[in-house]
Amino acid sequence: MCLFKDGQVSKITPYNYHICFHSYESDEMLHETVKQFFALDSLGICAPQNHLHSKEDERALEKLRDVTTLKNGRYQVGLLWKYDNVRLPNNRSMALRRHRCLTKRMEREPELAGTLRSKMADYERKGYIRKLTSEESRRTGDRTWYLPIFPVFNPNKPGKVRIVFDAAASFGGVSLNSFLMKGPDQLNDLPPVLYKFRERLIGLGGDVAEMFHQLRINSEDEDSQRIVWCANEHTMEPCDFVMQVVTFGATCSPSTALFVLNENATRFASKYPAAVDAIRHRHYVDDMLTSVDTEEQAIKLANEVRYVHQQGGFHMRNWIISDRGTNFVGADKELKETVAALDQNQLMAEFNTTRTTWRFNPPASPHMGGCWERLIQSVKKILANVKPQRVPTEEVLRNYLIQVENIVNSRPLTHVPVDDCSLPALTPNHFLLGSSDGSKPLVQYTECPLALHRSWKASEALANLYWKRWVAEYLPTITRRTKWFYPVKPIRIGDVVVIADPNFPRNCWPKGRVVSVKASADGQVRSAVVQTNTGVYERPATKLAVLDVGANGSGSNQGSTTGGDCCVQHSLTAAPTYQHH
């Protein structure tokens, strides 16, 4: 918006103001929306940043401090004008047009009409609105503005109607909100409020009744909150009213209300510190959620919070000590409805048939599980020893466990004849996924500040750590010392081997053929040179697992085993064996 004459907009000469629309604002809004979306990944992990106030926010805070006063137990505030000298056009014709549309709707919906008239009558009784005299209606000023009204409904609260005073309604290209500052964001972050609510044994909650309407508007700004309303259904001509409180619809209302709520609480910081902390840091808009250890503490805190709010003209209601909150009741109702909707006959037919057989091992006998129990033991042991520096998020932990699963299922299987040494060793993933890893190549990590990449890097680091411990700790435990059962032949030229090295990338089990060996003085082979598809490697014999493949490419029998393998009747696991020297 471009304004002329020091921000003044004349109601007589329309050329005194000019509206400009730029795509830059749309781009900035889109950028901010995407930024906030990615920031969701860091909730509960990264500490919230303290944002500096803009010049407009500083001006808004200054005005809030100047105009906010406490009179007769109620706070009085003013609108947060962007400019000191503002002249608004007379928009009563627009307000009348909107009122006629609302009247026609009320004629079609008698129940809505009754609700609106009852609510507006209640507003007048409470002093939220005041009917103007004929003389007051005719008297207008530079800031006279009419607010159209419309009802809004909450699908989760049937029958409840909230009246919105539309400060965003435009007339001649301007609205009341276009001349008001939003004010600094004083809203508490929702995740910390929810965390604290779940932290202790006893939950405590409540909300401030009609929080906005408990703040009086000073007389100078009342004229900018006029409305037209027909209180009598038998009278066709509407009358002028004025809103005497902060409205639900003005852009500055949330910041103003939270400022007053916190300022009022600060007066009692020394006398009721727990209550002040609950008001300042455990409120989300007008809802309070916190938790304590005992019912006595809950009752004491509730009484103190109620008292502090009362001193500012606010009333706390809907108190849900322990677990009778609407969220819990709603969750209980939804669960019961879901269970009732299940087809019990279909469940019985699916899971209780002659095709389903349950077989149980005796209690305290995991050794009877054989191979799978050995794998479970190894996975649990390594998981217990891998201790990240901080507690991973649910997404990081899930991704980490999925990659651990992939590592376990990428292990080579023994005693499977392989005809061509260029083929990869057979793994459980071949049966599950059709290949040894079954995954796409991992995306190269870049130093990007986005939280998504930070989480990805965390899960990658955990998976890499697991891989190294897997190769170093698990594989030796499944290798039988075959010298106690059969004479062991040393690794020979022509043997097909798998290279096991924790320094290799995860799930990498290179296979190749031995092209040369190096023996020590006692005749034992200590290292070998292996030709693979990707190159030539020299590795110690302890890092080479000889596959059950003869030099001529056919599987060898039990009587002529190659060095390092173990026989079927003595093996409890299906994995490559090692030559130990």
Report on the architecture of this protein.
The chain has 16 helices and 19 strands. Helix 14 (394-408) runs parallel beside helix 16 (451-477). The protein has helices at 23-39, 55-67, 92-108, 110-126, 134-138, 190-197, 219-222, 253-266, 273-281, 295-310, 326-341, 344-351, 371-385, 394-408, 428-432, 451-477, and strands spanning 2-3, 17-18, 69-71, 74-77, 129-131, 149-153, 161-165, 202-208, 216-217, 226-229, 239-243, 283-284, 287-292, 316-317, 496-499, 511-519, 525-532, 535-540, 544-546. It folds into two domains: 92-317, HIV Type 1 Reverse Transcriptase, subunit A, domain 1 (HIV Type 1 Reverse Transcriptase, Chain A, domain 1, Roll); 369-570, no CATH class. The strands form six sheets. Strands 18-17-16-15-19 form a five-stranded antiparallel beta sheet, with no helix packed on it. Strands 12-13-8-14 form a four-stranded antiparallel beta sheet. The chain has 581 residues and is α+β, with helices and mostly antiparallel strands. Mean pLDDT is 78; it is low at 1-24 and 550-581. The radius of gyration is 37 Å and the shape is elongated.
The CATH first-level class of the largest domain comes to Alpha Beta
What fold name goes in the CATH topology slot of the largest domain?
Answer: HIV Type 1 Reverse Transcriptase, Chain A, domain 1
Q: What is the architecture of the largest domain at the second tier of CATH?
A: Roll
CA radius of gyration is: 37 Å
User: How far apart are the first and last residues' alpha carbons, in Å?
Assistant: 82 Å
**Structural class of the secondary elements?**
alpha+beta
What's the number of domains? 2
What profile does the largest beta sheet have?
5 strands, antiparallel
Spatial order of the strands forming the largest sheet = 18-17-16-15-19
Provide mean pLDDT, rounded: 78
Could you give me the name of the CATH homologous superfamily of the largest domain?
HIV Type 1 Reverse Transcriptase, subunit A, domain 1
What is the β-strand count?
A: 19
The unreliable regions are 1-24, 550-581
Number of helices: 16
